[in-house]
Amino acid sequence: MTTVAVPGFLSLTIAIVVFFVGTGLNRWIAPLRRWNIPEAVTGGLLAALVTLVAYRVFDTSISFDLAARDMLLLYFFTGIGLNARLDDLLSGGKPLLILLALTLIFLVIQNLIAAGSVALLGLPDGITVLLGSASLIGGHGTAIAWAPMIATQFGLQNAMEVGVAAATLGLVVASLVGGPVARLLIARYHLSGPTAIKPMVGLPKSAEQPGKDEISHISLLRTILVLNVAVLIGFTLDEIFTEFGIRLPLFVACLLVAIVLTNTIPRVLPQVAWPTRTRALALISDLSLNIFLAMSLMSMQLWTLGDLGPSLVLVLGLQTVAAVLYMLFVVFPAMGRNYEAAVLSAGFSGISLGATPTAIANMTAVTKVHGAAPMAFIILPLVSAFFIDIANAFAIGFFLR
Q1: In Å, how far are 33, 299, 345 from 362, measured between CA atoms?
Q2: Can you tell me the distance from the alpha carbon of 363 to that of 75, in angstroms, rounded to the nearest whole number?
Q3: DSSP category for residue 375
Q4: What is the Cα–Cα distance from 133 to 155, expressed in whole angstroms?
Q5: How far is CA 377 from the centre of its chain?
Q6: What is the pLDDT of residues 296-343, one digit of tens each?
Q7: Quick check: 95 and 318 in contact, CB under 8 A?
Q8: Contact in structure between 100 and 383 (CB atoms under 8 Å)
Q9: According to the 3-state scheme, what is the secondary structure of 98-156?
Q10: What does the DSSP assignment read for 323-346?
Q11: Sign of CA dihedral 374, 377, 382, 383
C-alpha cells in the first residue's frame, strides 16, 4: 500500500477545484440543482469516490492536511454569531426550546433503533452507541472520543473503525437528504421566504442590485478584521472553559463571543461600521462553509465502510428512514409548518445524521433559492453544537452502562 500525504496548501487548492467541479455538475445535472444539493457536496463526494478508486484499484491511500479546514470552520461559525441580533435571539426562545426537545427525543429514538438492530443482527456488545447517537448525532469527533473506552469495556477492537465508518456514512446521507426534504415541503405547502431580508450565508441565486451595501476591499477587510478579533477572543474563552473542566468544540466559544460582540459594540460605539447582515459577511461565510465542506467530504476514506459488511449499511438505512420520517411528520409540524420550519427540517438531517456544518450547508442551499430564514441559522447551531453535545454524553454513558 502506497500512502500519499497531500500538504495543507495543496489540499486547500484541491478543495477549491472540487467545489468548482461540483458547481459544474450541478449546472449540468438538473436534479442536483432542483433538489438543492450543495455544490461542495456534489464535488466532495465525487472526489471521495476518486480516492476510493485509487485505494481499491491502484493500492494507494490518499490523505489530506486539513488545518485550513479547521480555520474555515471557525470563520463560518463566528460569522453566524456576528449575525445574531438580540431581538432575533429573544424571539427565538420558544422555537429553540422546541427544536432542542425534538432533538433530545430523536436522540433516544436513534439509540433505540441501534439497540434493536444490534440485537436482531447479533452484532457485538458495545456497538450500539456507535451505530446510534455517538457517531450520527455526535459525528466523527464524538465517535473518536468514545471509541477507546468502548473498546476497553467491551473488548471491541474495531470500535474506532466502526464509529468512524458510521459517522462517515451518516455525513454522506445527511448531505443528500436535507435539500430534497425541504424542497418537498416547500412545494407541498407552497412556501417561500421573505425577499426583503438578506441571507445570512451566501448571496441569493437571483441577480443582486448594487446599493450602499456593495462589496469592496474595504468592506471585506473590515469584516475579516472583526472575524479575526472575535476568533482570538474565542480562543481565550475556550481556554477558560477548559480550565473549569468544560469541554466544548472551539467553534462554540467563537460563536458565543461573536454573539456578545454583535449585540454590544454597535450599541456602545454606533459610529463603528459593524458587519452584521452585510453582503461582505454573507460572502465570507459562504466561502468558508463551501471550502470547509469540500475538504471534509473529499477527505473521507470511504473504503473503511466496505470492511464492515452489509450490517452497517442496513442499520444506517433504518436510521436514515427514521430521520426523514421524523423531519417530515414531527419536526416540520412542531416548528410551525412554515418556511422557517421547512428550512429547519433540511438542517435537521445534519443534526440527526451528519454534523452541524452539513446542516448549515443544506439550509444555505435552500435559502439561496427560496429566500432567507434568519431564525433557523440562529437556533440550529446553538442546539446542534452546544446543548445536544451535553445531552449526548449522558445518553452514551447510560447506554454503555
Answers
A1: 12, 19, 10
A2: 18
A3: H
A4: 20
A5: 11
A6: 888 877 776 665 668 888 999 999 999 999 999 999 999 999 999 999
A7: no
A8: yes
A9: HHHHHHHHHHHHHHHHHHHHHHHHCCCCCCCHHHCCCCCCCHHHHHHHHHHHHHHHHCC
A10: HHHHIIIIIHHHTTSSHHHHHHHH
A11: positive
131 CB-near residues (< 8 Å, 6+ apart)? 114, 117, 118, 123, 162, 166, 312, 315, 316, 319
Q: Nearest to residue 139, comparing CAs of 312, 364, 392, 310?
A: 392
Grid cell locating 329? 411528520
Place of cell 450541478: 26
CA–CA distances in Å: residue 156 to residues 112, 130, 170? 20, 11, 21
Instruction: Write out pLDDT tens, residues 220-271.
Output: 999 999 999 999 999 999 999 889 887 666 877 888 899 899 999 999 998 8
C-alpha cell at 249: 468544540
Residues ≥6 apart with Cβ < 8 Å to 241: 247, 248, 253
What are the two backbone dihedrals, phi and then psi, of residue 57, each rounded to the nearest 5 degrees? -90, -45
- Reported as a single tens digit per residue, the pLDDT across 193-219 is 776 565 556 566 554 444 456 788 899
**For 157, how many CA atoms within 13 A lie in the half-sphere containing its CB?**
0
Nearest partner of 385 among 66, 42, 37, 74, judged by Cα: 74
% of the chain at pLDDT higher than 90:
42
